[in-house]
Amino acid sequence: MIPTIPTSRAFRLTYGAYVALFFLYLALPLTVVAVFAFNDSQFPSLPWDGFTWAWFFGTERPQIGVFHERGILRAVGTSAFVAGCVAVLSVAVGTTNAFLFNRYEFRGKGLLYVLMLLPLVIPGIVLGISILIFSSTLANGIWDLAQMDIQALRPGLLLVILGQFSFITTIATLVISARLQKFDRTLEEAALNLGADRLTAVRTITLPFLAPAMVGAVVVAFLMSFENFNTTLMLVGSDAPLTIAMFDRLKEGSTPLLNAVSLLLMLGSSLLALLVILFQRRP
Amino acid sequence: MRSQSRIAFYLLLTPLVLWLGLLIVIPHIDMLLISLRERISFGVYDRSLLQYEKALTEPLYLRTFARTAVMSILATAITLIIAFPVAYYIAKMAKGRLQQVLFLLCLIPFYVSELVRTFGWMILLRETGIVSNLLQWTGLADQPVELLYTDATMMVGLVYTSMLFMVVPLVTTLESLDDSVIEAGYDLGGNGFSVLREIIIPHAMPGIVSGCIVVFMLSLGNYLTPTMLGGKDSLWFTEMIYNQFIVRSNWELGAAFGFMLLVLSSVIVWGMLALTGRTLKETMG
What we know:
The complex is a heterodimer. Chain A has one domain: MetI-like (MetI-like fold). Chain A is about 70% helix and about 0% strand. Chain A contains eleven helices and two strands. Chain B has two domains: about 70 residues; about 130 residues, MetI-like fold (Orthogonal Bundle), CATH 1.10.3720. Chain B is about 75% helix and about 5% strand. A two-stranded antiparallel sheet of chain B has the order 1-2. Chain B starts with a helix and ends with a helix. At the A-B interface, α1, α3, α4, α5 and α6 of A face α1, α3, α4, α5 and α8 of B.
């Protein structure tokens, strides 16, 4: 079953058709979402009532476009803020983790490494509720001790950020570790021989080497945070990020406005992904 | 130098310990403790196994738990069966540019939020949707057909959502299989089936295991797909956790459910690893 082994024509055709069908299956839902963003109707479904840009730029009811819909714009802002915080935090901790596991031998290293991987195999919703429970235990404890009500420990943006950070850090650690393992340590030693202290050597030699992986991890973390649903659902307060805001609207019935938002999301994330690929191609 | 290195070590260790301690280990211990208590009156609690007793004796809870487990395993199996030929095609049959393009095409849907993907399936399958209209147009149905809110629809969505996490590890392991090994298999008198069974599948095992683990985890922990595509009867365990926490505010029972889900997923992941003699570190790291 490789090109050098002769197979019957019928087999090759069936196989090719199967793969084509598979890609149709992959493309279908996304294509449909994109196309109906331009339907001049109240519903993202047939019949097709003609082409319109109103769901993007419309200013009058009932067709208020994405760019004039306050609720959606605010949710996009919230999501971007959360994703930015999560990306910076998780890449920072991911980098220190990578150095720790790459450079040091210590007792309990194996155990810590497995613990570090665990967030990937804990269901997102369980991560969410465990953090919800612990933060509320903390908040209640502080109230009992000092009669202080710490609002930050109640469901809201801080908890959303911490919840997403708790598992995205694992991914950042893995991405950065993979690159650090390829680093030639004699380069760092050469810098030390030339009179640099350890911090300078790491800053001027190792970190620039890691930069592509760190940029990649920032983008991956940003996208994962932007799209996260399960963990966010359990920790969200009154400021809803985009996925939650869209979910609430979808439950009430949808208009092509949601298609327009979705199309912009697809374009945005493809653009980011493309940027990473281009950035990593650079020698 | 030594003491400087020690300081650096502790500086690097601190964020890791804070992260894992405060956000993973302690919250889960707290969750276990909450699930092991019973509310006596306002602010007064007692240690008890009541929540687990409730969870294990109430038929609805138990049935949902079992259903979620079985359906997740089924979704994993279906994903593997659909993905394997495609991954093989990308890794072994397609060459050069076509191979790269196909691989990238596999990734694209997953840069988009799960919500958007689910929304796409709703547009396709609802009563006024594309498929229903197509069926009427071709004469296969004489009235609008509701294809949403069944187990089959939910399965379509679950498989779609986690496809990438099966295809990527499979392509990676299959690519490392040398063509000459397959040729040797044929030269020694094997046919397509025996080569697949004796050479290709054993070689792809690491990819199969890590793909299956991730897909299983994603299906088990999925909330959106069962909620949006599944029917009234296809309650998912995550929906019950959400209901106890957010709708009923019964955190004790919700925590017990959360812990059951965690145990279930650990047992199955551990079982898959044990069955194939691999470790978590090899599979995920």
